[in-house]
Fold these 2 entries.
Entry 1:
Amino acid sequence: MKSRYDNEMELHFLSKSSNEAFARITVAAFAAQLDPTIEELADIKTAVSEAVTNSIIHGYENTEGIVKLKATLLDNVVEIEVSDNGKGIEDVELARKPLYTTKGNLERSGMGFTIMESFMDEVEIQSVVEIGTKVTMRKKIKKEVENEEGEELEETELTQENTLMNS
Ligand SMILES: Nc1ncnc2c1ncn2[C@@H]1O[C@H](COP(=O)(O)OP(=O)(O)OP(=O)(O)O)[C@@H](O)[C@H]1O
Ligand SMILES: [Mg+2]
């Protein structure tokens, strides 16, 4: 069967906090094919880390379950899905709000979804109570293009340079 993506991968792992680093490093290695900047890679790792941690501590509440991670590449967009078959979220809109947490006693700050939204271009949350939660995140990796001198510039910088030269 031909994939509709340029590349894709899937991982299933136990909901142990020791797997959080494994998940974020694996996605970063996979997304590296799009030639992201260090900052873009750091953003992806942070977002994956927040989503995976949520599945482990909220979805499964530290009981044993399977966390699924799927990543795809299409053109210069990386899409990452993190899902669990855990307890689910009652009110997704509320859960997205900054500082909202159901585990304030465990020193969670309620900033996970806000961080995912600020570091990725799109974040979708699908959740059903007692069935589970799926978080889908997308990020466009800005392509670097070469200017006449052969220096690598990001698209935005090149646009700025053209504007300066034409003005
Ligand atoms: N996978 C999940 N399963 C069940 N509930 C979830 C899941 N992910 C998030 N939630 C719920 O959404 C709330 C908000 O999540 P968010 O990541 O923004 O904050 P937090 O995890 O409580 O705190 P922080 O991420 O700052 O440590 C959580 O407190 C929890 O109630
Ligand atoms: Mg969180």
Entry 2:
Amino acid sequence: MSERRDTGEAAQEAGEEVGGSVTALGSGPRTGGAGSGVSVNGDGQERPGDGRSDEGGGSTSGQEASGQAGSGSGASGPEAFGQEASGPGAGRGGGSRGGEAGERRRWRQAGVAAVLLGLVTVAVAAFSTPWHLIASGPPDPARDFTAAQIARSEAFDAATTLPSYLALAISLVIAGLLVATPVGAKLVAWLRGPWWARVILGVVVITALIQLVKLPLAIWVETLLRDYGLSTQQWGPWAADRLKNIGVEAALLCLTLLVLVALARRFRRWWIPAAAGAFALTIVVSFVYPVVFAPLFNDFTPMRQGPLRTSLLAMAERDGVPVEDVLVADASRRTTALNAYVSGFGATRRIVVYDTLLKAPQPQIELVVAHELGHAKRDDVLYGTFIGALSAALGAILLFLIFGPVSRRVGVTSIGDPRAVGAIMGLMTIGSLIMSPAENLVTRHIEARADLHALDLTQDPATFIEMQKHLAVTNISDLSPDAVEYVLYASHPSSPERIAMARAWAELNGVPVP
Ligand SMILES: [Zn+2]
């Protein structure tokens, strides 16, 4: 979920992303969520086919279960709630007596759990983020980029700014309508069938309508990418990519909401199993992403035998990071942008480079892979997934807490009512948008640490800077993002910031400053 504009590719996603965020599947720390990965360059996951919908970025990632949402006194709906959940306090005082006092008690319990889990999540993120790396000088684009390169970057930024913000505004307006008006509930009320069929149909219909509204923006962004030579796609494959991406997100959303509604129909304290389920689903989706979802969008082949592969595997060996292979993704089917990323963890962990990158000089490719080795060595995807899973669990509890006020506005009294799906989707979108600046703040530091790792491993700041320049120029990165763009979209430090850090590293290590 989240559009990245620091690379061309990112902007591409911006268009797509719109959808992503509404379905809210991609939120969560981008380094972790569904399909997420950590890339060298600002994206890696954002595009619908690139590895994640991190976009929505994805993956950002992965809070399938509920970006945040809310719901309140959930138990008192017209739907039947058969039994209490067994949770803290479940037996105490006859929770089954229900009534207002029981509801208030359940709400307080969920509130306490939310505060505790929120503290744990913030603590894990705060302690696992490398806040202080090395002090660098101020970024200075004019030192490393020509006036023409800077002008082109500014022109591209100017062209994509409007569609990006429009996409964001539309996401917010739609989410607002779903959360603050009965429009979503009325839509689902027209649908017929058992509750589970109405949940699925509700997700499909609302997703389709949202995507229809956003389609012109997506076409606009794709047109810009072609104008600037970043997209290599024709409209047919572009539409197929988009449909696949929407399909995957809608399927995951259906699964999430079916479980959520089923739990709410069965348990008064449904937030307990919902939080556990959200946590588990985030972990599972991130784990299987490289083998289940990524192949829907790209072909991955082991890097061809040769000096490059030998050199990369030797570097991994030297680094103490066990890597069986480096995979090459056929990214050139849709983009000219350069990138690489790590996704999965444990048995599914893989380092992937775009085939577009293979045309770069070998020392630059080695620098890119050295950065990815930094992510692998620190298990950044695993930590990101864990934080994303905690956030998803927290989102499930917040949904329970907030649904009360929302229910009055949308005219649906319980999460167990299929007519609530629109409101839940809206809350998930809002939640992931709120989380996005915090995710970016964390990932920018994690990316800087991977850069430092690449410098330590290669001892070659000159090539590092060449690589950053090459990536920035090819991907038409934003060389001086304004504050709002930086906070909202920048998952990576800007290229001039990364270059400044390489110079600081050189000074610190007594290497000639390039
Ligand atoms: Zn990275």
